[in-house]
Amino acid sequence: MTKQEAKQRIAKLKKEIDHHRYLYHVLDRQEISDSALDSLKKELFDLEQEFPDLITLDSPTQRIGGKPLKEFKKVKHSSPMLSFNDAFSEKDMKDWLERLSKLTKEKIDFYCELKIDGLAIELDYKNNSFTGSTRGDGFVGEDITENLKTVEAIPLSLDKNIIVRGEVFIPKKVFEKFKHKYANPRNLAAGSVRQLDPKITASRKLDCFIYDIFIDVETHEEKHKALKKLGFKTNTYNKYCKNLEEVFAFHKHINKIRDKIPYEIDGIVVLINSNKLFDKLGSVGKAPRGAIAYKFAGKQATTVVEDIKVQIGRTGALTPVAHLKPVQLAGITISRATLHNEDEIKRLGLKIGDTVIISRAGDVIPDIIKVLPKLRNGKEKKFVMPRVCPACGGKVIRKTALHYCSNPNCFAQRKEYFYHFVSKSAFDISGLGPKIIDQLIEANLVSDPADLFDLEKGDLIPLERFAEKSADNLIEALNVKEIDLPRFIYSLGIRNVGEETAIDLAKRFSLDELKKAKLKELESLQDIGPIVAKSIYNWFRQERNILFLEKLLKKVKVKKVKFKNKLKDKVFVLTGELDSMTRDEAKDRIRDLGGDVSSSVSGNTDYVVVGSEPGSKYNKAKKLKVPVIKEKEFLDLLK
């Protein structure tokens, strides 16, 4: 990016961030998620670090909070209440330490605190009482003394004149009663301490941790010990870390137990433990140099759509895929997001070059959920769905919401079908990835998936990436004697037939019965509508499929599955990560007992199984009053 381009981008980012920060800090409402706003702020910060002469006093990175509301008396802080810059990865943390190491040669150790989703406050104790205020704009806050007196964790009086700072927050159990009105616990906490009637504040059952005190001690850790002796509530999770490796371990541990903590957190705050060094390093803009907020992986982030390319699936469906400027999301680097179809692009109003918010929950493929049109620079381009297949040049036709390549011999479709055939839910051929499949096709060693079972070691050795051992391993993996009927049906790649439909068919038919099934028989099955029924019926009557099936059945034996009925007719939805098994293993256990697994929550869902870091399915389940069970209850059902 040139300096001129950076200047234009910074101007747009500043305007967009200021809009959302005003909503968040002053009006206590928001249009985008915290993690999406953090992502915009991180992009601005990184650009300003690359072009420091473009930093201006009105930049959001140089400011602290919102303006005081008119309803409350103003309180001037004895020293600025600063906030923190954000880090989202170990690399960001190493970069921060590297910047500090250029400013000091002293040994650096750390003190880590939980970053609570609440509201920062200052308590000024004088003459056995206190004045309590909000952060406000960092220099002047709002006098909320009477409201803070209702928080039982805050001592009403001390026999010393001191100033302390902390965080007021709403416990998760309390937030449950109000979440239909408030977007998050921070908004509820802010709204509660800004009530003009303290009785309303008292009814909200606010809590508070104190994390800083203005006394002369050597380390930040000693400040916490002093606060505890004075009778302030301090966070027992906080921890001293002698180096970054210990910080990383603490961050991972807290992220793992995050759901068990009775209040919302979105990361940890990492501070230089030495108070003398902390003060010596000073601040830059709104943030102290000696502290940083090490956030947990956000479920949303902002990035730029650099291009939109079309991917051809095994059924010939053309799926537009957004190629993104790489961004960290939910712990991994994301560079692609599905756009589903042309209608979805129109619904979003998306153009190539747009800044967008992307979302990823659990192991779901990232989605673009919102476009930020105010960040456009005029160079964005409209996407047009191709009229001919980009892989084979075949004519593209539209059926319902999807576009398809009409050429049955399309090379791209052929490759995707091979990938599907060997996938974990089908034949599960380990060691046979896309690159090797591409080699086998290009070398004319296979014309359809049935040919895979005729491969010999001598066919593989001449190919790139193959040595004696790897060739032996693949031949052994291809030595498939038999396969369960549901997996076999799924492996055939019949349009609209997923894992669950394959299981439903296997429960009702043998393979011979399925081949001969009439259209009305298929349509009469529960959860199989006329479109799916027609796909199945037509597949078994196309000559090329009949010949392929005959060829394949000479190589492998299909085994009829006996389904147990303990979970018969029970529909499960899985969200989040389980400790005792993978998502695929959990699905297999449910199906083995006669249950069904759905990818979405509806009124027909019997149970939503919730692991760590659950996605939007958890919220939808609660909204629909669908039973939500945790891992232990789920395991009890499987016994």
Structure description:
There is one protein chain. By secondary structure, this protein is α+β, with helices and mostly antiparallel strands. It has 5 domains: 3-62, Helix hairpin bin (Helix Hairpins), CATH 1.10.287.610; 74-295, D-amino Acid Aminotransferase, Chain A, domain 1 (2-Layer Sandwich); 300-403, Nucleic acid-binding proteins (OB fold (Dihydrolipoamide Acetyltransferase, E2P)); 413-559, 5' to 3' exonuclease, C-terminal subdomain (DNA polymerase, domain 1); 571-638, BRCT domain (Rossmann fold, 3-Layer(aba) Sandwich). Helix content is 35%, strand content 21%. It is built from 24 helices and 26 strands. Strands 14, 15, 16, 17, 18, 19 and 20 form a 7-stranded antiparallel sheet that branches. Strands 2-13-10-3-9 form a 5-stranded mixed sheet. The chain has a 4-stranded antiparallel sheet with strand order 5-4-7-8. Strand 23, helix 22 and strand 24 form a beta-alpha-beta unit.
What keywords describe this structure?
about 650 residues, alpha+beta, Helix Hairpins, D-amino Acid Aminotransferase, Chain A, domain 1, OB fold (Dihydrolipoamide Acetyltransferase, E2P), 5 domains, 7-stranded antiparallel β-sheet, 24 helices, about 35% helix
In short:
With 639 residues, this protein is α+β, with helices and mostly antiparallel strands.
